[in-house]
Each structure stands twice: as C-alpha cells, then as structure tokens.
Amino acid sequence: MSVALSDIVAALGGELLGDASARIDAIAPLDGAGPSAISFLANPRYRSQLGSTRAGCVIVAPALRDEAAARGAALVTPDPYLYFARLTQWWAVRTRAALPAGVHPGAVVEEGAYIDPTARVEALAFVGAGAVVEAGTVVGAQSFVGRAARVGAGSRLAARVVLGERCTLGQRCIVHSGVVIGADGFGFAPDQGRWEKIEQLGAVRIGDDVEIGANTCIDRGALGDTVIEDGVKLDNLIQIAHNVHIGAHTAIAGCVAIAGSTRIGRHCTIAGASSVVGHIELVDHVHVSACTLVSRSIRQPGRYSGSFPFDDNASWEKNAATLRQLHALRERLKALEKKIS
Amino acid sequence: MSVALSDIVAALGGELLGDASARIDAIAPLDGAGPSAISFLANPRYRSQLGSTRAGCVIVAPALRDEAAARGAALVTPDPYLYFARLTQWWAVRTRAALPAGVHPGAVVEEGAYIDPTARVEALAFVGAGAVVEAGTVVGAQSFVGRAARVGAGSRLAARVVLGERCTLGQRCIVHSGVVIGADGFGFAPDQGRWEKIEQLGAVRIGDDVEIGANTCIDRGALGDTVIEDGVKLDNLIQIAHNVHIGAHTAIAGCVAIAGSTRIGRHCTIAGASSVVGHIELVDHVHVSACTLVSRSIRQPGRYSGSFPFDDNASWEKNAATLRQLHALRERLKALEKKIS
Amino acid sequence: MSVALSDIVAALGGELLGDASARIDAIAPLDGAGPSAISFLANPRYRSQLGSTRAGCVIVAPALRDEAAARGAALVTPDPYLYFARLTQWWAVRTRAALPAGVHPGAVVEEGAYIDPTARVEALAFVGAGAVVEAGTVVGAQSFVGRAARVGAGSRLAARVVLGERCTLGQRCIVHSGVVIGADGFGFAPDQGRWEKIEQLGAVRIGDDVEIGANTCIDRGALGDTVIEDGVKLDNLIQIAHNVHIGAHTAIAGCVAIAGSTRIGRHCTIAGASSVVGHIELVDHVHVSACTLVSRSIRQPGRYSGSFPFDDNASWEKNAATLRQLHALRERLKALEKKIS
C-alpha cells in the first residue's frame, strides 16, 4: 500500500508542512524509518533523533514545527502519539482485507441463536442456543459463544475465544485468542477436610470498547456478576476472579491477578505481574507499579509500589539473609539508642 | 425459577423457622438480597447485617437462631456456609437445562475410541483412538481428548479443553476452558550452548473430584507421571510442571507456579501468585500466603509468607534503596555495638 | 517395547560394559528403576544411589566406570545427561505411532493456502488463505494457522495452537497446546481519560528449533516484528510482549513476563515467575533467578536475583513491618554514629 501525505491529512487532520504529494508506504519508528515511511516524535527525550531520522515525514507537536520542517515534511498536531494511534487505525482499515459477513458452513450454530446478517461467524466456531450475535461482529474461527451469551455490535472475537453461557460483551470490544470469559469462579466450602463446590450462578458483564488480551481469564460471579466497565483494557494472561468489578478506562498489564470480589476504580493502571488480594477496594486514579502485591484497600489516588529490588546474586544473597533478621536488627538498634542516651 | 422454603429443607435438611410456604427465586448476599431471596450468614463479623438485610430467609448457625427468627424466616444449620454451598448445587441442578447424551455429528471421534452411551460429546470436539469416555461425562465443544486418554465417569470438560495422549482424569472432575493437561514438561540437556530436548515420556494422572480452572497447565512427566490426587482444587492460570505430585484435598489459587518434581502435601493451600521451586517437598497442612516464593522444603505444617509490603511509591523508593545496603547497615550496627561495649 | 542394550549403543554410541543382549523396556530414574530399566547418573551428588539402584543398566561418566561396572551393565559416555536426552528422543521415535500425512476431511483449509503433501493437518484445524505449511509438519487438531502465516519444515503444532496472520515459524519447532502467537500487542494512546487503540501492524518471527510451552503468548509487534531467535526454549504461561527480541538459545521458565520492546541476549536463562520491564536490554549470558523483577538493563553477564525470602508467617510479619521503616532505621543509625564519633 502507498498513500500520499495529503490522503493522511484529509482523513486525520493536522497541519502538513512540505510536499503533500509525497508518498508513504509504511509507518515506522524514528530510528528505523526510511524515506518512504512516516514516523512520529511523541517523547521530547527522543528529540535528538529528529536530526538523524531518514523518515519521509515526521508527526510532531507545535513546539517542534520549525525544527521538523527544516529537515523535510512534517505533520504538526497537538498530540503526536494520539495522531499516530489514529494513523495506525486508518492504516489497518486500508490494508486489511474486508471479510464478508455470513456463517461459515463449517461453524455450528444451534437452533435459537440469533446471528445478525451483517455478522461474520468463521469456520469451526460454535454459537449456542439463545445467544445473540449483533450487527457487524466477528466470531473468529474455533471460537465458542455459549448459550444465551451476547456479542455486542461491532465486537470482534479472534480465533479460539470462549464467551461462556449468559455472559455479555458490549459494543466494539476486541477479544483475543485463548481468552476465557465465564469459567466458574474458585469457590468452595470446607467440609471435614474436603472442599464442597459452590456453584457459580452469576455471569460476566463487559461494557463497550473493552479489549482483552490473549489467554486472559474472567470468571463468572458466584451469585452476582463479575463486571468490566466501558473502555477497560486488559493485556494477556490476566486473571480476573469472580465478582471483581473493574471501573471504566482502567488498563491492566500482562500477568496481573485480581482476587475475588475486589473493586478497582476508574482510570487506574496496574503494571505487569502485580496482584491484588480479594475483597478490597482501590479508588479511582490509583496506579500500581510492576510486581506489586496490593494487600489492602487503597483510599487515595496515587502511585503504589512493592517490588523487591534485584541485584547481582551475591549482593542479593547478603541482603536477603540480613532481611530475615531485620526485626532483630531493629531491636539491637533500639537497645543501642537507649544505652547511649 | 421459584421454590418454597419447604422444598429447600426437604432437599437439604436444616431447621426452618417461619413460613415454610414462602417462595424464593434467588440466592443473594445479605446486602443485596430482596424479599424473595435466600441469603446466609457464615461469618460472625457480618452479624450486624442481620438487622438490615431484606432477605426473605437467612441461613444461620444455632447461636443466631433467636436473632434471625426475630426478623423473619430463618434456616438453622450447624455450618451455614456449607449449607449455602449445597444449596447452590441443588439450585444449579434445578435451573440448568439437562443436555442429552450422544456424540454431536460435528464432533470427530477416531475409530477405536470408546464413548459410553450415557456420555455427551459436543460439537467440534475430538476424541482420539483408544480413548475412553466413561458414563455420564461431558466432553465440551471444541475439546480435545488425546489417544488412549481416559475421562472418568461423571467428569465434565468445558469447551476447549485439552486432555493429552495417555493422560487420565478420575471421576466427577470438572475441567474448565483452556486447560491443557499433558503438554510436554520443560526438559532439556545443555549441549555446547544449545538445548537438546528430553522427550517427555510420562503422562498426567488425575484423581477423583478434582477441579481445574481456566487456562491452567499440567505438564506430563519426563519419565514417571505428574500426579494430582483426589479432591484437589486448582484455580485459573496455574502452572504445574512435570513430575509434580499434589496431595489430596489441596487447594491452589490463581497464577501459582509449581516447578518440576516438587511434592506438595495433602490439605495444603497456596494463595494466589505464589511460586514453589522444583525438587522440594511441602508436608501436609502447609499454607502459603499470596505472592510468596517457596524456595526450600517445608517440614512443618503452618503458615508461610514472603511478599514485599507495598507502600506509596515515594516511601517504597526510599525503603527499597536502603534495602540494597542492608548488609552494610548491619555491619555498621555491629561496629557501633563493638565501639560502645 | 523392549530393546537390547546393543540396539541402544548401535544407535547412540557410548561404551557398553556388561551383557549387550540384556533387554530394556523402560527408562527410569535411579531410585525407581527395576532390572529391565535403563537409568542415568548425571549429578555426582547422587553417586551413592549407584549402590542401591536396581536398574538393569546405568549411563555414567568415565570417572564412574569401575564403580558402575561392579554392580552390573553400564554405558559410559562423557555427558550422561546429554546421552539420556538423546535416548529419550530415540525412544520416543520407536514408541510413538507414526501418523500419516494429509489433510483431515474435518479440517478447513482456505483456498490459496499451500499444504505440502508430506504435512499432516489434523481434524478441525484451520489454515487460512496464503498460509504455507511446509514439508513434514504437523498442524494439530483444532489448531489455527492464520492467513499468510508460515509453518517451517518439520515443525509441529500440538492441538489447539494459534499462529496468527502473517506470523512465521522456523524449522523443527514444537508449539504446545493453547499457545497464542500473534495476538495484538498492548498499545494505546491516552486521550482525555480514554484509551485509543494503536493497531499492531507488525508480526511475530520465530527461528528454527524453538519450543514454546502450553498457553504461552507472543504478541505481534506494533510496527516492526517481535523476534524469537533460533533454539530458544519457552516454558508454559509465558508472556512475551510486542517488539521483544529474544536471542538464540535462551531458555525461559514458566510464568515469566517480558514487557514490550525489551531485548534479551543469547544464551540467557530466566527462572520461573520472573518479570522483565519494557524497553531495556539484557546482554548475552545473563541468568535471572526465580521470582525476580528485572527493572533496569543488565550490561554484565552473570546471575541476578531479587526475590523476597519467605519465612514462617510470624517472622515474616515482624520483618515486613520493620521493612516499611527501613529508611527511618538507617537515619537512626546514622544519627547514632554521629553522636558516638
């Protein structure tokens, strides 16, 4: 594919400096871009790369207008990173084959399922009785839509997704391969050393514009539902336990685990490999660093951390060994202070 | 669905106080229950909710009999939480559609597989030659039962489960979507900077009444088998490496990793996001807290922990920086003690 | 299956001491081996087991030749563990049924896909238009090979693998069930409290002789590709984010997370449950211990660690509480030092 810079500006706006007829055939980072690629400078830290990049056009903020224009074509916009995001979307629409609607003959659709005529149900997919697959959706190859589940308009399930019985997905959601929505939550009552299953009678309710990464799991609620609000973004291999509630526009990175009945606020971010214990609450605008165990509720917005600093193995061994005597050290210090004063 | 309180007592026992003909159409937590819901009070901490709940009936322990009866119908039983668990099971049986036995025409069953006539093999499932699918089982849509594998009587594979070649599942097990039983363990011999594969010749043997959560993996043994004993409950996204042995009635929460050849005792619990290194042993009745790395064998029952306490980011940064000098601090303290004494 | 010791030596070399016609029907660890099993002694720590094992033959290093021969048949070779690895491979070839090539009638192959006549495409698999499935490969049951993807010669996808659109796999790779290669990376631009998707336009490129464990995810790149070089071994439930680059012959254990754009060197090892933040670099021959967060680049080969030492819960509680005052303790120590000097 090749487009003129004028095509991009016509579609996405911005002020173009330089030759509007110059043609672009790729989007690339500053350091890898060739003369037919468009690139962007979002982080002022990389400003020096403006001098060395071979990109045919660079998307920049107004502050860099002159500097950028001096080296070649430039596209000036208040938020270059956001412009870049929209450019990738426009690019994807232009380069990806449009796939026809309809149910593949190798899919299995039970009687009583509703498939909108504008939806696409791919090969070897299964759609259960009472399920509703709304307009403009894609149910990917080998995906499973359980009985009475709902796939909202414009949503897209990649290959091999499970959307369990009675679970609902809002509009314009993207669900990646291997995701399991609506497996049973982990609930058991102890009975003389054995575990008695608590049947998980709730479901999962997912809002609009939610994206869910590969192999992530969202369990159904025990009694009520597990709820993911609008605009939430979940990365890969995340565990969302039963009856968790995640507020709108919260983003959670890979390999995070959220235990049961916990409530995460809106506009939070949780970095990779962190965990949140069950039955607690995080208010809006909480930001959790990587590899942190959130072991109690957080009532104030802000950033929270709790990872162990890594080191070369020998230093770590000495510090870790001392750590196990930390309380004793404190007592020794206290004794010393007493002695001296 | 709506039932009379008398129906519940007839099925599950307990002493009913109040109007036995009152009708119930939901099970709900105390704080969300309406007049037609039944709820339960298992934790004495929530006793105060007995005054405010609108539940039509509350399941309580004998100690709360009078208090509960004063506000409306009550169901008295020695262990309300266990009663609640059994109620959910009874409820599930009544509300879930019974699905007919038989092999879906869109499933693929190889010659030489045995499918009991009372088993149900759903659409797009695969059952390999020599596999045995016993009475009353369900092999969910798009699930895979490898050659010579066995699904024990009354077990249920959800949609899109993999039970590998020669692996066996006991009776009344529940395996959730995305589970992979019997992938190769991670075994390689170093050879001049390259890795030479050690073929994994063992299998996975799983006992009765085991439940396995979504996207959990249990690898086959290198030579012998990986073994999961009766009554074990595994949550989602757990990694069980080759030749691990997990004792009966142990429960493991989400995102736990157990490395190869480790032996976990009976009646243990391991909280979420913890890890256990390989080639060690944990005795019976060991309880591991969340986010703990168990780096050596545990010979005594009890609770073990090892997570880093989280904090606001500024406090954490100061403490984490100091932590890297911990050994030096100890030496300074020692020197000071020497000087003073 | 039963083989003579002479068969093994004929195939794999080594010096045989004892009766070459003795028959072997299993490979087993020293402590579990019976008289018809062959075992190996790779770690000198287990030397004492040589006296007690009932194995019919033991693979040993030259240093143990006499000791081993004194107790029965022995196979002498410079690297017993490597010999054992090759023996398992030879064993697997002899015991596993050879499966015929060809496309199962229940598979779905789109027009324009190329399937080599020596490849095997199993039941309910999907191969998209423009995909290339090379000679001697296996595409397992219910697996998905996206449009324009490539499966290199001799590679094997287990059941239920996803190889996404345009992603490529080298030769002789093994990909286990549940793996997702080529889901979208996690990329969003903030826009007034919402997240705007950055379409992931790159792909995943995987070298030769790579093995990928169950339910592991490797995301496609945002602009360029995510790259896994030759000989890399990945265990289960690993998250490899977009634009990560992993050097040849690096091995990564279960439940590790590598964040976006990070570059891992060659011949590295990363132990289980560790994480590596994004946009950093680890040089060749770096070894990371279990449960470690690598939070900055590592410029020197060596071993690095960062896990919190676990303890019985009471000790941990005291030390963890003190840890939160660590900075203050340091200040108190400093004050004391000042006072005294």
Automatic annotation (TrEMBL), chains A, B, C:
<keyword id="KW-0441">Lipid A biosynthesis</keyword>
<keyword id="KW-0012">Acyltransferase</keyword>
<comment type="function">
    <text>Catalyzes the N-acylation of UDP-3-O-acylglucosamine using 3-hydroxyacyl-ACP as the acyl donor. Is involved in the biosynthesis of lipid A, a phosphorylated glycolipid that anchors the lipopolysaccharide to the outer membrane of the cell.</text>
</comment>
<keyword id="KW-0444">Lipid biosynthesis</keyword>
<keyword id="KW-0443">Lipid metabolism</keyword>
<comment type="pathway">
    <text>Bacterial outer membrane biogenesis; LPS lipid A biosynthesis.</text>
</comment>
<feature type="domain" description="UDP-3-O-[3-hydroxymyristoyl] glucosamine N-acyltransferase non-repeat region">
    <location>
        <begin position="23"/>
        <end position="90"/>
    </location>
</feature>
<dbReference type="GO" id="GO:0009245">
    <property type="term" value="P:lipid A biosynthetic process"/>
</dbReference>
<dbReference type="InterPro" id="IPR011004">
    <property type="entry name" value="Trimer_LpxA-like_sf"/>
</dbReference>
<dbReference type="GO" id="GO:0016410">
    <property type="term" value="F:N-acyltransferase activity"/>
</dbReference>
<keyword id="KW-0808">Transferase</keyword>
<comment type="similarity">
    <text>Belongs to the transferase hexapeptide repeat family. LpxD subfamily.</text>
</comment>
<feature type="active site" description="Proton acceptor">
    <location>
        <position position="242"/>
    </location>
</feature>
<comment type="subunit">
    <text>Homotrimer.</text>
</comment>
<dbReference type="InterPro" id="IPR007691">
    <property type="entry name" value="LpxD"/>
</dbReference>
<dbReference type="InterPro" id="IPR018357">
    <property type="entry name" value="Hexapep_transf_CS"/>
</dbReference>
<dbReference type="Pfam" id="PF14602">
    <property type="entry name" value="Hexapep_2"/>
</dbReference>
<keyword id="KW-0677">Repeat</keyword>
<dbReference type="GO" id="GO:0103118">
    <property type="term" value="F:UDP-3-O-[(3R)-3-hydroxyacyl]-glucosamine N-acyltransferase activity"/>
</dbReference>
<dbReference type="GO" id="GO:0016020">
    <property type="term" value="C:membrane"/>
</dbReference>
<dbReference type="InterPro" id="IPR020573">
    <property type="entry name" value="UDP_GlcNAc_AcTrfase_non-rep"/>
</dbReference>
<dbReference type="InterPro" id="IPR001451">
    <property type="entry name" value="Hexapep"/>
</dbReference>
<dbReference type="Pfam" id="PF04613">
    <property type="entry name" value="LpxD"/>
</dbReference>
<protein>
    <recommendedName>
        <fullName>UDP-3-O-acylglucosamine N-acyltransferase</fullName>
        <ecNumber>2.3.1.191</ecNumber>
    </recommendedName>
</protein>
